[in-house]
Amino acid sequence: MFQADRRDLSCQPSKLASPQEQDQPRLVQVPDADRQDMQFPDIWLRDNCRCKECYLPQTLSRLPQLWNHLDTSVRVLRQSVDLDQEVLCVEWSDGHASQYPLSWLRERDFSSANRQRYLRDFYRPEQKLWSGLDFEHMRQMFYYQELITCDSALQQWLHHLAVFGVALVKEAPLDMDVLRSLSNRVGFMRRTTYGEEFSVRAQPGASNYAYLAAPLPLHTDMPYFEYLPGVTMLHTLEQSASPGGVNLLADAFYVVEVMRERYSEQFRVLCQTPVDWADIGSDGDLHFHNIWRAPVINLDAEGRCVRINHSIPQRDSHFSVPVEQVRPWYEAMATFVGLAHEHSCRFKTTPGDVLTFDNLRLVHGRTGYDDTDRNVRHILGAFVDWDIVYSRLRVLRSASATSSSPDAP
């Protein structure tokens, strides 16, 4: 089946493996003249066959036929590399034949360095945590008109937001459609029970604590949603001339790492104790009763922090845990709140500023302010989900890489 000019890397059909042999990963070694030889698990190669029976190019996805009767014992009978075409060719024990471009394999090499590169450079940028003392050094300003008209500026804004969790957009017009325009540049807004956009200003009889002129403690927005809005955008239309209305921000992921290192037992409590978060009220004609149960600190399978839930007004009086877990949780939470304040920063936005930050990572608040007819503070808010941000960032990055390639037209 294979041409003679291919490098033959064939292996003889293997006998039935013993249980001990089955526990060992069966790896296909692929030589590469430009780098260290690559290796791939054989079953992964079979699952990712690129032929028309297994893969649909227009959807960039595998077809399901193999998985209707997946043979996990499938083995490589023979393999070779076509040096001219730079293709790996494989014959399988199930009678199938596959070809894999070496360029495609290089991008998916299982080496530790390549996996880390993909996760850091393409999946999601590596986050850099910060304390309030670091804020002035890492803060970066972007300009509204550049974000609307320039893709490279848009890419830089989204990348900085992903890495540091906060970015300030300056010189936006004092119009009601600014957040929609920014959201449309990224993808689309996230709608919540408060609509697609919401106005934050003092309101008599407000059903949400944010709509009061009183101090707003550090919190994440809407922890009562399982599907939490990812990026908060706050456009300052009017700012209080009183000394109050000062923004408070803290990188809660930084606080988590401080707790992990210094207060390991309290860190464990905040990771494992589920809390009832709730929002009951109405907005216009819509009445709602939202509840979500989750710990304050949420970790992924590798132990990294991926979400913070925290809002004193929106923590329900229901606490559905055994009584012996209650006091340890309060003690741990007091440590968390104290550290968040200790490592927070303060600044005050001016009309035309759009403060954008990671709502899964940062806790934010503001000081109280005087609210009169002549001293009004008006902030317009909206959300964009991180899935949409990361998607746009990858598209921009790919387009930038293509345009900078020497082979690009």
Automatic annotation (TrEMBL):
Pathway: Amine and polyamine biosynthesis; carnitine biosynthesis
InterPro entries: AlphaKG_dependent_hydroxylases, GBBH-like_N, GBBH-like_N_sf, TauD-like_sf, TauD/TfdA-like
SUPFAM superfamilies, sorted: Clavaminate synthase-like (SSF51197)
Any one Gene Ontology BP term: carnitine biosynthetic process
Start and end residues of each stretch annotated as Disordered: 1-32
Biased composition (Polar residues): 11-22
CC terms in the record's Gene Ontology section: mitochondrion
Single GO molecular function: 2-oxoglutarate-dependent dioxygenase activity
Gene3D superfamilies registered for this protein in UniProt: 3.30.2020.30, Clavaminate synthase-like (3.60.130.10)
All residue ranges annotated as the TauD/TfdA-like domain in the record: 149-382
All residue ranges annotated as the Gamma-butyrobetaine hydroxylase-like N-terminal domain in the record: 23-106
A Pfam match: GBBH-like_N
Family stated for the protein in its record: Belongs to the gamma-BBH/TMLD family.
Essential cofactor(s): Fe(2+); L-ascorbate
Official protein name in the record: Uncharacterized protein
Superkingdom classification of source: Eukaryota
Keywords from the named record: Carnitine biosynthesis, Dioxygenase, Iron, Metal-binding, Oxidoreductase
